[in-house]
Amino acid sequence: MRNSSESGSAVVEFVLLALPLFLPFLLFIGQFSELSSAEMGARNLVREIVRAYVSAENEGDARQRSSAVLDFAAQKFGFSKPEIQSMKLSFACSSQPCFSSGGKVRAVLHFYLSGSGREIDVSAEESVSPWQ
After folding, report:
1. pTM for the full model?
2. Which has the least CB within 10 A, 16, 111, 112, 125?
3. Dihedral of the CA atoms 25, 31, 37, 38 (nearest 10)?
């Protein structure tokens, strides 16, 4: 026979024992979600930047376009001011001059994720139009 004062004690014991075990897991999932979201946004951002770069008429115009897209789209993708300020963008071309017909342009974006301080590196590659 059970004592009436013990009703519900199994639930309380389970919560007291399970909560400390699940808390680190929940924290890990939260951080993983934040990092994954930032990487996905950064991949989309660098993809848009390299598209703007290869659609320009010349390399000077391409640098201006890519810089404008970086400033505008980074805010739209939800990056914070410190993250945007830490962004470094570099380009590499498969052929010289860079806008050779059929060549490839690779953009690499490097920045620090605010809050966790993690470094994120993402890249995208786009072909220069053969009719350019």
Report:
1. 0.79
2. 16
3. -160
Q: Where are the domains of the chain?
A: 8-127
Q: pLDDT tier at 128 (50, 70, 90 boundaries)? A: confident
Q: Tell me the pLDDT tens digit for each residue of 24-82.
A: 888 889 888 888 999 999 999 999 999 999 998 888 899 999 999 999 999 999 999 99
**Cis bond before residue 82 (omega within 30° of 0):** no
Burial class for 12, CB neighbours closer than 10 Å (0-12, 13-18, 19+): exposed
CA dihedral of residues 40, 42, 45, 49 (deg, nearest 10): -130
Name the DSSP letter for residue 5. G
DSSP run (H or E) holding 54: helix 9-54
What radius of gyration do the chain's Cα atoms show? 24
CB 128 within 8 A of CB 95: no
